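Extended Data, panel c. Modelled sequence:
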Amino acid sequence: MKICGFEKFSMVDWDGKVVCTVFCAGCNFRCPFCHNRSLALSSAPGIPESEVFEYLEKRKGLIDGVCVSGGEPTLSHDLKDFIAKIKALGYKVKLDTNGTNPEVVKDLIDNGLVDYVAMDVKDSPEKYPLITKTKNLELNKVLETMSILKSSGVDFEFRTTLIKEFHTEEDMKRIALLVKGAKRYFLQKYVDNDNCIEHGFTAVDRDTAEKWLSLFDGVDKAGLRGY
């Protein structure tokens, strides 16, 4: 598996846990506001898996788990083997995904290889082609992954990064229908940085985010993140 980033200590990638985060190369989306351009485009230099596992061996008992992020991890053909090695060391595993590979997510869940899944819900279904810049997008697969998570019993969250240029209250109403019945849903504040694919986008203000949050009464826990 091509690893292009390794954050050895994080208290923000998994709520309530101290973790390290592994960033996988490659993504099948090209969301213009993505803040991991080098990962999405696979342009960052690779990091040997051995470096990750040497660190994990040394940190046993000092960190709670590993967040496997990207890019889009489920594109990696050896993701299952990689996570199995992490689990064998006694760590909990969180997976970040855009939900486009439901069969991979289901296989990991069925084999007890993930303890938490965070899935991005980019926008209302109608806007997915616009926001992801993806031709021949199979939106049904995204919806299938959402359904798998809701019925799986594994701990999970859905989340949407709010962009003024892309998201409206009507979009939020449509997303609220999609995530109804979920354990957790978060509206995240957009932050521009040097590694974004494109620039010039605007964060939704807190007052508007709080107003939109009230639409998600069908979720067990809905909150703001980064505000």
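The two ends are 34 Å apart (CA to CA). This feature is highlighted in the accompanying rendering.
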